[in-house]
Records
---
Amino acid sequence: MKHKIMTIVFCAILLAGFALNVVTPDKDISFTERRPLDQMPVLNKDFIFSKDTGEVLEEYLLDQFWNRDGVRSLKVWFDRIVLRKSDSSGLYEINGHLFKMDYPLNENSVIKAADKIKDINTKFLGVADQVAYSIIPDKAHYNPLKDKYLSLDYEKMESILTEQMETVSDNGQTRIPAMGYVALEPTLELDDYYYTDLHWKQENLKETVEAIWNYFGIEAELDMDEFTVKDYAPFYGAYYGQAASNGNGDQLSWLVDEEIENMIVKDFDEMKASKDIVYAEEKLGTVDSYELFFGGNSPLIVIDNPSCETGDRLILFRDSFGSAIAPLLAKEYSQVVLVDLRFLGYEYLGNFVDFEDADILFMWGQAIYNDSTMIRQR
């Protein structure tokens, strides 16, 4: 009798789940996972007799499962409370901040990243003015309990990189500019990063911007009072969905003034719908609201600032962190060129970028240095 009751209960749960899946409308996208969801395929003859029918239906049912986010949250709860794990799928939470375990430090990758920077310097930057590099610390570097969790060793990465760069010198034939180091770590702290995302907050970058300006000889201060701060909430960062978080998300803010609004942007990614703008506000509320900044990643973006008449130019080799800081840096440059070597091989730079008399900054997050294969050569 006991086994019959258990069987009946089990079947009832299956039927209830099936009924809920049937009556619940399908969703187009998952904001928490920041991706589109599979939709119901067209049930025609070709599909029914296709060898991929089972796989396609399985992916659709998994994506459209009733209360999918609740089930994912249950898994996280089970990992942390029942299994007593310090993380779930490599993500953990401290004081509301979500962190991702990125480990171990790949020393060979850091060396190869340095080699690629030096190769670019040798091939293209002989006509440049000043050349510098920097590391954007992963937010886990500022975790007050970081000694209890696996993370990239920022100090070790910095040491390897600076040691490798010291080998750069004038070879007597071709001018190879010496490269300096812009230390960004002292200008940042944990609250300068989003709770649910890996990126930094634009409104908190005053010290970082000024450190870069000052290195290149620009004696200026960023007047935060001159900006209008615009806000959007909730912003669900990259870690929010991965951690199956049930929190309220972040507030995404961006800084606006007349000078930024008058900047002229040329985006060379012809595939992007959002082009030629600093802030693509139509991206708010989409799968990735961080694409507010320039409409998302792009291999090459040129920003002209008519309000700055110095003629100074900055070439910024950047990753997605560069999108938020670029409009602020551009306030003291007549032109800023954003180059993303994740999408553009550096051997082709001579066809697209003029380096003459420009300031050059290589500025990537720790993850890029730790996986230098993302820095494309071709």
---
Amino acid sequence: MKPVVKRVMSGLAVGVLGLSGLTACGSDDSPTSSSSSSAAAVKLATATVGDYGKVIVDGNGRTVYVFDKDTSGTSNCSGDCLAKWPVVPAGDGTPQFDGIDASLVSTVTRADGTMQLAINGLPLYLFASDSEAGEAKGQAVGGVWWVVGANGQKITTEPGGSGNGYGY
């Protein structure tokens, strides 16, 4: 019976050492994972932008857009398009909504498997040339990109002035 007890004790010791090693590894990673999960929580809010009234913006106040070539539940912006129109990622945390009906917001699975936020089923994007909160330089670009009102509907008002400055 003593050899059995000795084997059990040896096994327990190895298990405890193994678990403490895993715990140490876990604690090394925990600052990164907790900061990334808190940083990954997406926020959408509303703000008054230009002549468009209250529109949806991201957590940094950047205007979000929808793309006429997308269909409900499917993004058709890829490759070079994404360089100019980065997606609004779904993130890993619980999304926060300020001034937006949460029932309008959903996610879309992109072709690469990543998740993107959507409003009324349409994927959401930022415009790379909007460098500051409150800008809407992407409005009506190519006649297919539109800011989104607080009600989740695209706003098709053309920007003021002659043309939009993007050769469209």
---
Amino acid sequence: MVSQEFDIVGIGNAIVDVISDVNDEFINQQELRKGLMSLVDLDTIKSLSNKIEIKANVSGGSVANSIVALAQNNIKSAFIGKVGKDEVGNSFIRGLEKERVVFANQAQSDESETGRCLVMVTPDAQRTMSTYLGISQKLKSNDINEDVIAQSKITYLEGYLWDLDDAQEAIKKAIKISKKANRLVAFSVSDVFCIERFRESFLNLVNNEADIIFANEEEIKSLYQKDSLDDCLKIISQHDKIFAITLGEKGAMIVRKDQCVKIKAQQIENLVDTTGAGDLFAAGFLLGYINGENLEQCGNEGVIFASKIIQIYGARL
């Protein structure tokens, strides 16, 4: 790869989002947990896919969604993930390249297929997700492009990676390279279920490695095992880090030491699908941050991005 500087590189699951409209009855019949993400095997994802009408196929994955939104706003962006040598994998890479994101890895052959996430949207705009991680869950240390990490101002990681067998070693390697090059690390905790499984590891990363942390209100309370957001704020204000916390219809809160900036929510005229709201909030915030804006401006960018994405299908603007 030609040596070049990047504003940001994301490391995450390389997943293709398969989006469909369903009703509550379907969710109940399939014994799915409404509004939550479940990991499933290839047979299950294929069986579910056969029972629904597909509205759209979009290259997805949490961090990948954020990276694409940044690239769409002229931020020099790269992505590291793992896809198979199959049509779904090819479509994922094409989706990134079309948005001028450098895919800093190679498609690889394996008995697994490229990962995909079936996003089932109910009439109340809640999304229930069944995810087949496939080959994306086999991210290893040797998949980490050291040059790209060292040449990126920010390395952005997602909590979903912790479910992967060898990815924790890959993450440690990426953080080490980033820190050695005096770069920044951003981290999205991703999901309450991820936090419950890997709380100690997440806390270590948040306390010692990450410079910018993204979470929603429930996630930050789960991370610190507190019942109130105020109790969490007392803890995080002791760290010289940026915590960007989304509060749903209440907007967002940006915290850095004793500075706490409250961001108002945008007026939503047509709530369609909440998929990607957190991903796009992170993208908007990072866009402002990379462009040198203050915390309030960064938070406002995040809320604007999130409000746009929930009025359309999918997690890409």
---
Amino acid sequence: MKILTLNTWQERGPWRERWELIFRGLKVYDADIVGFQEVFNMEWAEEIQKRSGYPYLAVSGEHSGLIFLSKFKPVEQECLVMKAKSATEDYLRYVFYIRVDRDGEEIAFFNTHLSWRADENDVRMKQTLELEVFVNQKMGDFPAAVMGDFNGAANTPPVVYLREIRKWIDTFWAKNPGDFGLTWDYRNPYAEAEREKMAERRIDYIFIREKIGAFAKIGASRVVFNEPSPEGVWPSDHFGVMTQF
């Protein structure tokens, strides 16, 4: 099984050309579960499913920007509206949950996107605690994967809390110890244009909460969507992460 996460950068920049690269990458990577952030147009979400060929699309609504593409049938879904809010943002943050049936084995998946400012670890910490409570409520005895744009580096308090205190497994670091694995990378001109706001770091993650079965062994994890087209178009301002089990 392969899981992929990518922040798609809304409909910004040369967005149709960018999406051609994303569609091409989806065919190459052939992930079973894809968690996208910043898809706010529900008609476009349906077009994404059609163009990518995934049998199932789960949407949480246009306000959250969180969607899933899945090869497995969703049997339950819910979207959490977070209470913790940045004073610098005029919008809310969310966690989108689906549970899928993979040949009789049910697996829980969570997709999120936390507040972005580098100096707001306190806000992200509150959001992370809300995320954790929601995950614990919904995962039950099922294995669970949590993915998305956490907007914090591996050494920031919210990520350290998940990894070191709560023992969530950072699947990229599990297979690439010591590798920074940049997903906000100044090689990408869309990211470099925000140099004054955002430092280079990995801010996109796939964590697992293992109880039974599905994630018994991490086979590989890598940064994806990290190359431009010959014309210099990049898939997004972020790079993505894909983990294979």
